[in-house]
Structure formats: C-alpha cells, structure tokens
Amino acid sequence: MPIVQCVPNFSEGRDLEKIEKIVQPLRCKEGVKLLNYEGDKNYNRLVVTVIGEPKKVKDAVLESIGVAAELIDMNNHKGQHPRFGATDVCPFIPIKDMTMDDAINLARELGKEVSERYGIPVFLYENAATKPERENLATVRKGEYEGLDEKFSDSNWAPDFGEAKKHSTAGAIAIGARRPLIAYNINLDTKNIEIASKIAKTIRHSSGGYRFIKAGAVEVSERNMTQVTMNLTDYTKTSMYRAFEAVKMEARRYGVNVMGSEIVGICPMEALIDVSAYYLGLENFDLSNVLETNLME
What is the pLDDT of residues 81-118, one digit of tens each? Predict the structure, then answer.
C-alpha cells in the first residue's frame, strides 16, 4: 500500500486549545497516523507530521486546514518565522510505493479542494511548482501575509488555485511535494540577533553557502539566546554534522559558542546514522547495523 508523509505548518504556536483543535482531525483516523506535533512560542508556529494512505491523509489534512482557517486570524498574528497563511505550507513527501509524480498529483488535488471549499488562494511549490520561480518557498512567501495584496496585484503571481485575492483572515497557502527535509536549529550563547543572522547568511545556499541549506536567525528571549534555524533540504548531500560544524566554525569568528541544537519534527534514521558514523569514526556502518531495522524485516 502506498504511504505518504505530510508536514503541514500552521501559524499558531502559543494557544494550546487552538493547537489541539487543529490537530484533532488528524487523530484516530483509519489509514492516518499522527506522528508528531510541536508548537513553538517564538516562531508562533505549529509543525505537524502525519503519515498514511495518500487519499486518507489528504482528506484529514484538508479538514485541519479548515479548522485553522476558522481559528487563526492572520491580521493579529505575530511571530519570528516567515508566514503568509493560517496554514502556511503543506508539503507531501513520498515514503513507500509512491513516486514524486504521485505526490505532486496529491498536492494539486488538495490545492484545488482548499481553494474551492475554503476560498483560500493556493500556490504550488517545490516539485509541484507550475513555474520555475515558484519552486523556492522563500520566493513564494516573500512579503509574507502583509505583502499579499501587493503580490496579487502582479499578474505573474496569480495563484495556482483560487482567486488572486487573499483570504481575509487565513491569507494564502503553499502546497507542494518534496523530498524529506530536516528542520534543524542550532543554539548560540548570545542575544545578538545580528551575529546569528551573519552566520545564517554565510552557510545558506542563497548567499553562497551550502547547496542544500536554507537558513535564518531567530531570537529566543526566554532563554537569552539566538538560533540559526535551518532546513536541510537534502541531508544525503549536506548532512547535519556538516551544518553543525559550519555554524561552530563561524561562531568562533564572533567569540560565540554553540550551546546545543534541536530537530523540529521527524528526522530520518539514515541522517542520524550519518552523524553517529562521523563523530564516532565508525567504519562501514549503515542502517543494516541498526537493531530496530533488522527487527522490522
């Protein structure tokens, strides 16, 4: 049976009651398994990971998008993460017995249903993009919610589904298909956001850094620190240990130390095996050496 992963991101990370209502349609559904959900107060963002049968996952996520549209008013939303919609992004990732084309078709089906049912304009991105300039999520989301009116005034930015007009409270949504990525943040022992921003600029691909790193900076005020926040879009080409060591090296330039790091959401075991092999100097070590892998066979 085909299996797809979906990682919708919602613009609510503080109100626990709202978070539970948004996640509820993903619980206890046949053919759908809720793997993880994490709300972040600084980002004011909820990252959810579900997996299961493609159509059933799509239908459950469609319901959650509707709940988010009812509960979240983007006119009042503030957070440190870029966003332009109540449900900001919704990527599909083929996991088993699915091709990328299958995931793209699923993204298009969901996009059409979201625009028709909720009146939210939809942009297709990454592998599902209809234009090269829409492949990069950062480009699609440029200007964020506050800039949507201006974006829609440009005929080049007509949505893939729905009217060229933002939803009055839910904004817009980017729906796509992609490979698995790792949301990875590295903590710095400084409150100076400019230092974190300079490090992020050095390592990210758009500024001349690593090909498969997207990076920015976030202030975590309650812990008196900042973060270099990253998406590793292909961990097989740019690994977590490479990103970690690059940030450590750049931090020394400013007399700053790395305090630790965190993975947001779900991470492929293969990526952690890669990190273990590097730091422990393991030879000829891969997934076949992992006990749990052999138990599943």
Answer: 999 999 999 999 999 999 999 999 999 999 999 999 99
The three-state secondary structure class of 98 is coil
What letter represents residue 178's amino acid? Answer: R
Nearest-angstrom CA–CA distance, 148 and 137: 15
Q: Does 77 qualify as catalytic in the annotation?
A: no
Report helix, strand or coil for 158: coil
- Cα separation, 266 vs 7, whole angstroms: 9
Q: Are the C-beta atoms of 160 and 123 separated by less than 8 Å?
A: yes
* Given the residues 77, 81, 167, 205, the one annotated as active site: 81
Residue 222 pLDDT: 87
Bridge partners (DSSP) of residue 264 are 183
Which pTM was predicted?
A: 0.83
* Measured distance CA(4)–CA(61) in Å, rounded: 12
Query: Residues 252-258: what's their mean pLDDT?
Result: 97
Domains and CATH numbers, the chain: 3-177 (3.30.990.10), 182-296 (3.30.70.670)
Cβ atoms of 87 and 69 within 8 Å: the answer is: yes
Question: How open is the CA angle 24-96-283, to the nearest 5 degrees?
Answer: 110
User: Rounded distance, CA 102 to CA 151, Å?
Assistant: 30
Count of CB atoms within 10 A of residue 227's CB?
25
CA atoms within 13 Å, Cβ hemisphere of 153: 5
Map tokens 């978070």 to a residue: 19
